[in-house]
Amino acid sequence: MMLFFNKNKKKKLDDNKVNTLYERYLDNSVEYVNYARMLTASLFPDKEFDEQNAKEYYNSVNYYVTYMREIFCDEILCFEEKLGINVSDMLEKADTITKYMMIEPKYPEIIYILNDTRAPHFHTNGKYILDAEFINAIPGLDSKLRQTKINGIFEGMDILEARALLNQMRLLPINSSLDKTIKEHEASTQVFESFKESVICLLLCSGTKSDLIRARMFADTFGVDFDFSPYEEKLNGEKILSKGMKEST
């Protein structure tokens, strides 16, 4: 596992900050391995499965770190006032898994609500409900509501709002199919956010101003909420602007 520390730079973060960044990176990789195992359940019980997933994670993070350093080399960072990441170019040479790691998770197009039947279900666009079908087939629904056009109530809702409404109506059993789908989506979203954070952490491990700029560019492009202030302050109080812009002199 290669760390890509920049040995040519004089300014370094102290060991504690580097260790903390690297620990976050490792914690995120463990989270990804656990997520992969959750999806496959007991289909791959051997240790090699976990090791392979960890290797894929490391390789994917290193791909984006390497890309940022090669495309936005120190010379470009010094002479360009404003820089932006071409996401299409970034993904062009990435392998399938590395590309997948940067795809924001979406809900399935069809979400089944109950475990024992596929009748009541939602059609989604990955985030919002486009259509609901056979909601009146859910056991326990009030007889008066069965006669109404209850399917239309859910159109336009996000998935969590729909679950809250079903729970309020006391129609959703514990560990329903809908609950499981939401749990998997939340786990995949957490892995997605943690992966982006890992790229930032590995860049910051070098403690250089250039990698700080690259990390800020990456965070701005991919919407990562990361507190850069401790690392900015460490570099002699030199404030690095957002969007990869160079401070005016």
Note the topology:
Layout: H1 15-40, H2 47-71, H3 74-79, H4 87-92, H5 96-100, E1 110-112, E2 121-124, E3 129-133, H6 143-146, H7 159-168, H8 177-204, H9 209-222, H10 229-234
Antiparallel strand pairs: 1-2, 2-3
Task: Note down, in words, how this protein is organized.
The longest helix is centred in the last third of the chain and has 28 residues, at about 175-205. This protein is mainly α and about 250 residues long. It has helices spanning about 15-40, 45-70, 75-80, 85-90, 95-100, 145, 160-170, 175-205, 210-220, 230-235, and strands at about 110, 120-125, 130-135. Helix 1 runs antiparallel to helix 8. A hairpin with a 4-residue loop joins strand 2 (about 120-125) and strand 3 (about 130-135). It has a three-stranded antiparallel beta sheet with strand order 1-2-3, covered by helices on one side. It is about 50% helix and about 5% strand.
Structural class: mainly alpha
Give the termini separation: 39 Å
The low-pLDDT segments are: 1-12, 239-249
pLDDT averaged residue by residue: 86
- Output the helix-strand order: HHHHHEEEHHHHH
Structural Rg: 23 Å
Sum up the overall morphology in one term: elongated
The number of helical segments is 10
Proportion of β residues? under 5%
Q: Helicity, in percent?
A: 40-55%
Main beta-sheet strand count, sense and barrel state: 3 strands, antiparallel
State the assembly state of the protein chains: single chain
Number of strands: 3
